[in-house]
Amino acid sequence: MSAGGGLSRRQLLQSGAGAALGVYGLGALSGCTVSRPIDRSAEGQIVVPKIDGDLLIYNWTQYMDPALKSGFSDKYGVAVNEVNYDNLEAMVIKLRSGGHYDLIWPSSEYVRRLRQEGLLLQFDRNKLRNSDKVNPFFDSPWYDPNSEFSMPYTYYTTGICWRSDVVSGMTGSWNDLSNPDGAGRMFILDDFQEAIGEANLINGSYINTEDLDELEASKQILLDQKQNARGFSTNDITNLVSGSAVLHQAWNGDVVNVRNQVDNPEDFQFETCEEGVPVGTDAMSIPITARSPGTALLFIDWLLEAENAARNVAWTGYAQPVEGGAEEFAKLAKDEPSIDITLEQLANGEEYRLDDPEARQAWTSLFTEVKAA
Amino acid sequence: MRADYWTRFLIPPGVWLLALFAFPLMLVLALSLGYVDDLGRAVYGTDWSNYAEAFNPTYLPVLIRSVGYAAATVALCLLIGYPIAYYIARFGGRYRYALIAALVVPFFVNYLVRTYAWVALLSDEGLVNNFLVNLGLTDRGIQMINTPWAVIGGLTYGYLIFMILPVYASLERMSPSVIEAGKDLYGRPFRTFLHVTLPQTKQGILAGSVLVFLPAVGDFVSAQLLGGPDTYMVGNLIQDQFFAANNWPFGAALTVVMMLFLSIWMIGYLRSASRDARGAAI
Questions:
Q1: What are the chain A neighbours of B124 within 8 Å (beta carbons)?
Q2: Do B37 and A4 touch (CB under 8 A)?
Q3: d(CA A228, CA A28)
Q4: Is A36 a domain residue?
């Protein structure tokens, strides 16, 4: 702008033309992928467990007994630092932009995606002291043949957690999310697959349906449920403990974790739903950009040790398919049958999985539309 | 010759602007024409469909909501900020700068952190509700967060200073003698304010309104932390495209549309300001 003068029409047009010229020049970029060239020097290397530096782990919040971090730290003399994500897409984006995390907890589907993208480091599972204590079910899972890029962490169901002192009349259906007792204090998981998945189940559709009409029907269900909701969030533990939520779409282990933190544990209940029970597995993997992959693998081994697995299961409430963890979970499930899950369920159950990129896009757009409405 | 000499000093900031402002902006433009590959990575392209999607009527309520919240924020900031600025400028005396400093210092703390403080204050079992319960005014607390009011409150708290400072500057520039003149002409206080003070500080109010409105429309922190299911703003929509829906090209297209939309307001403001400046010169 010229001093003292206004913004003339001519100046506006000139700057507009300049911008247009700039955009034209950008056509040269067409076809290039938007990603920072990340350090892939470790590609092809096979990690062995040995201390090679401090550890930076990247996990969901409240998904591991913190005592296991300090225990490892004391035993091996390295620092264990933790940062958290609240959805897996955000985690992937950080990895793609070259974040130096040593250990991540992707779900089965994400192990497969990250592996395809070459973002995971291969390791030699035979070098782990506890690898033979892991249930053989995970020797060669669908998402990671021969289990070279991941070790299983937990497996779980998705259902509904509620406060029985506030909410009554729960029926064991996904429609319980619309229970009026929870009005204004109900949360849907802020995860496009969990949210659309339960709506698909209510409609009697396949959990991973790619049929656009069926998805449209699920969108209507979600819009109705949203009327009853206070928000979308994956921080179910925090929301339930703080009292913001009395009704929450939730993962089975979290009810145990919540009960460990409150004064009125008997008021927190969990149910799976008759229309269908989504199941899933979270694994542990080492990103290609890890600075201390050896330490990370040692840490995986540490978590698989029977005593540590038992301790972790008692703290997180999630089933772990490893000696020690399995027995501890059986105890928890005996006290609270609603959280039970078996490997048969995992083998035959409904797991979130969208292989077709277009379907994935349709799902994420649908979820955006639900939130925007 | 002299002008040439001084022009040279523009080269370093010019290069900085070009490299770190204009160039990244061009990348956003380029990305908005891109698409997502099978692995979910964004690829540059020459595809206008993201813009078509950005004008999908589904997103219209989000824009209207954002503008509404921002307008409410401007109004609240004006109602709260004007008296404060007025008081400091007219009656602050030798404490004036200390008072301004007292207002500015809290804003050195990051907006995100200050918003988290609001969550702690206003949550169902937060400090305010505990206080109300202890007084016996309510038995289980009032839901204050996760409401549109909380979002507007958070925005107001976050951007209040941008209203106070320009209004304060325009009030300070104004000679107190014109107010006295207004009273000498038998104007009652309110009429004097309406006909003398307010017109004199119009540019300050306008500048403050623009400074509050523009960032408030694009804000996502307040709605994310203090909002509920029905407080989704444009900022949240854009942020979700980058960090949840993994559709960077669509996010970039929304960003460009948003920038154009905000530019219209900005240009309107600049024209009005320069018209006023010209008027004052004559």
A1: 242-244
A2: no
A3: 49
A4: no
Nearest to A100 by CA among A242, A265, A295: A295
Task: Answer yes or no: do B241 and A360 touch at CB < 8 A.
Answer: no
**Which member of B26, B38, B243 has the closest CB to residue A22?**
B26
Q: How far apart are CA A312 and CA A314, in angstroms?
A: 5
d(CA B125, CA A183): 18
A1 pLDDT exceeds 60?
no
Residue A141 phi/psi, 5° resolution? -70, 160
Please tell me the distance from the alpha carbon of residue A26 to that of residue A31, in angstroms, as a whole number: 11
Cβ(B249)–Cβ(B33) under 8 Å?
yes
Confidence of residue A26 (pLDDT cuts 50, 70, 90): low
Output DSSP code: residue A147: G
**Cβ contact A31–B228 (<8 Å):** no
**Start-end of H helices in A134-211:** 192-202
pLDDT in tens, A181-221: 999 999 999 999 999 999 999 999 999 999 999 999 999 99
Strand pairing category for A80-84 and A55-59: parallel
Find out whether A92 and A114 touch, Cβ atoms under 8 Å: yes
Mean pLDDT (chain B) is 91
On whether any CB of chain A is under 8 Å from the CB of B26, the answer is yes
Question: pLDDT digit string (tens) for B44-59?
Answer: 988 899 999 999 998 9
Is pLDDT above 70 for B254? Answer: yes
Rounded to the nearest 5 percent, the helix, strand and coil shares of chain A are 45, 15, 35
Residue A119 belongs to domain spanning: 46-150+285-304
Q: Amino acid identity, residue A18?
A: G
Tokens 């599972």 sit on residue:
A125
Closest CA to A312 of A157, A82, A153, A80: A153
Nearest CB neighbour to A7, from listed B43, B45, B270: B270
Considering the domain architecture, whether residues A65 and A186 belong to the same structural domain is answered as: no
User: Considering the entire predicted model, what is its pTM?
Assistant: 0.87
**For residue A76, is it within any domain?**
yes
- Are the C-beta atoms of residues A176 and A186 closer than 8 Å to each other? no
Q: List chain A residues with CB under 8 Å of B245.
A: 89, 192, 364-365, 367-368
- Residues forming beta bridges with residue A81, ordered by sequence position: A56
Enumerate domains of chain B plus CATH numbers: 48-281 (1.10.3720.10)
Tokens 């592996």 found at: A115
Specify whether A246 is located in the same domain as A266: yes
Is A57 a domain residue? yes
